[in-house]
């Protein structure tokens, strides 16, 4: 049997949101109505204090809120701004918690990928090293999940690489891979994880049937193999 519910919860502080680089404390109230079988939440919690950590860069949050609008998938909105030389850069995370969207704006105006690159590394995305490129891509994944795919495509184009893949490893940690053809038969890629691990792979296509593959990892894991393939 379902029972009716009409309950207001007041929490002036100590409501914490943590994850994806966010660490925030909020306060507010929540009204629960409906029945025990079908709860309907309505309420909002506003930012008291918080920060955003991104590749070792820490920003104080300037505004933020978490709203429940009839479902338990809250709508989140957080913003942080900082001055980098003569440019004001603002990072905003907004959307439902299940799929938030990442937006990076700047004044004077720069493309999103340029603004984020300038904030993290102080240089244009076209001048990033391979390691910085995958760190930048992993940062997008960490902040926005799948919501950053448009920005990821801009990064791939801006970096001039043939492949930019953002995902997670077997342990669920964010990771990014940047790959490029050095010539028609040589392909290399670099994978960097949010836990600090990295691996460089090199594929040499000797002929249509023979490929030499090598790898070097930051954990000391290395390997070299010759692979023969033929279709029958």
TrEMBL record:
Pfam families: TamB. It comes from the Bacteria. Residues 5-232 form the Translocation and assembly module TamB C-terminal domain. GO terms for biological process: protein secretion. Its main location: membrane. It is found in: Membrane. One of its GO terms (cellular component) is plasma membrane. Keywords: Membrane, Transmembrane, Transmembrane helix. InterPro entries: TamB_C (IPR007452). It is a single-pass membrane protein. This is Translocation/assembly module TamB domain-containing protein. It comes from Ponticoccus litoralis. The lineage of its organism: Bacteria, Pseudomonadati, Pseudomonadota, Alphaproteobacteria, Rhodobacterales.
